Amino acid sequence: MPQDAKPAPVMATDPWEDDLSSHLDSAFTNAILKRESFHGQPFAEVLSQAFLPVVAFLRDHGFDYLTDLTAVDHPKEEDRFELIAILYSFEANRRVRVKTRFSESHAPPSLTSLYEAANWLEREVYDMFGIHFAGHPNLKRILMPEDWQGHPLLKEKSIIDMDQDWVRKHLGIESGQ
Q1: What's the rounded Cα separation, in Å, for the pair 80 and 98?
Q2: Which long-range contacts (CB under 8 A, 24 or more apart) does 121-130 make?
Q3: Measured between alpha carbons, how far is 162 from 73 in angstroms, rounded to an integer?
Q4: Closest CA to 13 of 33, 34, 36
Q5: Exposure class string for 125-153: b at 16+ Cβ within 10 A, else e
Q6: pLDDT tens sequence across 86-130
Q7: Which of 65, 77, 132, 138 could form a disulfide with 88 if both were Cys (CB 3.0 to 4.6 A apart)?
Q8: Where are the domains of the chain?
Q9: Phi-psi category of residue 53: left, alpha or beta, with phi > 0 → left and psi -120 to 50 → alpha
């Protein structure tokens, strides 16, 4: 970080306290690390082994649509990856996020048994971050070319340095031009 740059402010959250959060806390007493709300959107941070059961619980309690599934890379931390599922309830017109953290060697379980939309969303996360989902029926690239080396959203190196050979071969230029 440049010397004059200020660190980003910590996300200001409020406690998530309603019937659903209480129900969730009761069902997963030792697995819920945090229940909070950011700008009115509730989220739960859970242990990695509870990710699938918590998402299944929420699906069974009206969150019938997986809006998005994404990840964040924290390369210097032991639990390198953060996985975030955003669920939506049509009946309640409400969203909730479920977050978990896990190490690079861990393969989180696929959500494809719960939501059909998870198929392409998990493929996108795999393609961009290299995260393997245990039990995914067809985990392969969806955005990048099949012969691309690496995963563009990993923070290990610059996007310009990603796959110089592929860029030269297919585009005939030096990457970053």
Answers
A1: 17
A2: 121/66, 121/68, 121/69, 121/70, 122/69, 124/69, 125/69, 125/70, 125/71, 125/83, 127/151, 128/71, 128/152, 128/153, 129/71, 129/73, 129/81, 129/153, 129/154, 130/154
A3: 16
A4: 36
A5: bbbbbbbebeebeebeebebeeebeebee
A6: 999 999 999 999 999 999 999 999 999 999 999 999 999 999 999
A7: 65
A8: 14-143, 152-177
A9: alpha
Angstrom distance (rounded) from CA 101 to CA 166: 32
Give 27-60 pLDDT, tens digit per residue.
999 999 999 999 889 999 999 999 999 999 999 9
Residues 14-143, CATH architecture: 2-Layer Sandwich (3.30)
Cα–Cα distance for residue pair 29/162, rounded to 1 Å: 43
What residues form DSSP beta bridges with 85? 69, 98
